[in-house]
Amino acid sequence: MHPFSYTRVSDTREALAAGSRGGRYIAGGTTLVDLMRETVERPEALVDISGLPLREVSATERGGLRIGALVTMSQAAADRKVRTLYPVVSEALELSASAQLRNMATIGGNIMQRTRCTYFRDVTADCNKRDPGSGCAARDGFNRMHAILGTSDSCVATHPSDVAVAFAALEAQVHLLGPDGERTLPFADFLLRPGNTPNREQAIRQGELITAVEIPALPRPLRSGYLKVRDRQSYEFALTSAAVALHISGGVIREAKVAAGGVGTVPWKLPAVEQHLIGERPSESLWAAAAAKAADGARPLQHNRFKPQLLNRTVERQLRIVGENS
């Protein structure tokens, strides 16, 4: 681990001042500290923001939900409002990691976490995300866990977060505070596809701080859930996953929110699936026909050619689970 300075701040003013000077924000540290140990990340200064008052889960005036950036994964998953209004979020969090990690990791840190691509974490391997211009060892290497959607010639790494898939499905917003004031980004714009700059993963500016993630109000009744397919049952990253939320009224699907994980360079929203569902009556044939569109545009690699079919099946299964319980 390379030498670094450490500053603990007690208010947002101090945090922004330290961040604008190049300091890296840290709270739970469950990802950043690991990357520092492996010398993948080499920040010169850490700014500990764990003492900031960003730990509240609250209902918004319009009927949505605002989750503070420093709410831990376990706190968010257990919160009554989250479990009642958006169970897809609590399920995604509970399927994400061990209890110990969930007790430490924060919501803000979770959506900022970096890929689990083995080549990214191997400092001897070529990786454009870690070392721009060096190449992408995963493209011709072992790429079973890698992305099939949103890839580029520069990068095929998947985004690892489960709860980010739920946020993407629900069309959440990320609230930011920086030297120039407050701003809000749609979740779909917050995480960036690699393109030619895979080292730039979020649309966050120097010194900006995530203050909250806000889930908008959606029609009621709303049934939602998260399904994660992985090699082993406990604490493994997704091969594929599906976050689904359906509003069914009068026997007809009025609203559909669907996103996939484990297959994209960012959490992958599935508008074609959603559009196929809206206005239709739930049925086995509908779930299958809608899910068949989930892998549209996929570009599988040598070792993950199974993922398009697995993705379709994952989405179909979760549509059925949520639809039958609505």
List low-pLDDT spans.
Answer: none
Major sheet: size, sense and barrel closure?
5 strands, antiparallel
Structural class: alpha+beta
**Mean pLDDT reading:** 95
Features:
globular; 30% helix; alpha+beta; 20% strand; Uridine Diphospho-n-acetylenolpyruvylglucosamine Reductase, domain 3; 326 residues; 4-stranded antiparallel beta sheet; 5-stranded antiparallel beta sheet; 14 helices; FAD-bd_PCMH-like_sf
Provide a short characterization of the protein structure.
InterPro entries: CO_DH_flav_C, CO_DH_flav_C_dom_sf, Diverse_Substr_Oxidored, FAD-bd_PCMH, FAD-bd_PCMH-like_sf, FAD-bd_PCMH_sub1, FAD-bd_PCMH_sub2, Mopterin_DH_FAD-bd. This is Xanthine dehydrogenase family protein subunit M. The protein is built from 14 helices and 12 strands.
Structure overview:
- The protein has 3 domains: 1-47; 57-112 and 161-215, 2-Layer Sandwich (Uridine Diphospho-n-acetylenolpyruvylglucosamine Reductase, domain 3), CATH 3.30.465.10; 223-324, Enolase-like, domain 1 (2-Layer Sandwich), CATH 3.30.390.50.
- β11 (252-261) and β12 (268-269) form a beta hairpin.
- α5 (87-94) runs antiparallel to α10, α12 runs antiparallel to α13 and α13 (284-291) packs antiparallel against α14 (307-324).
- A 5-stranded antiparallel β-sheet has the order 4-5-8-6-7.
- The protein is an alpha+beta fold and 326 residues long.
- It contains 14 helices and 12 strands.
- The chain has helices at residues 12-20, 32-37, 73-78, 80-85, 87-94, 99-104, 107-112, 118-121, 137-140, 163-169, 187-190, 271-277, 284-291, 307-324; strands at 5-8, 24-26, 45-48, 57-59, 65-68, 173-178, 181-186, 209-215, 223-229, 240-249, 252-261, 268-269.
- The relative contact order is 0.13.
- The protein is globular and about 60 Å long.
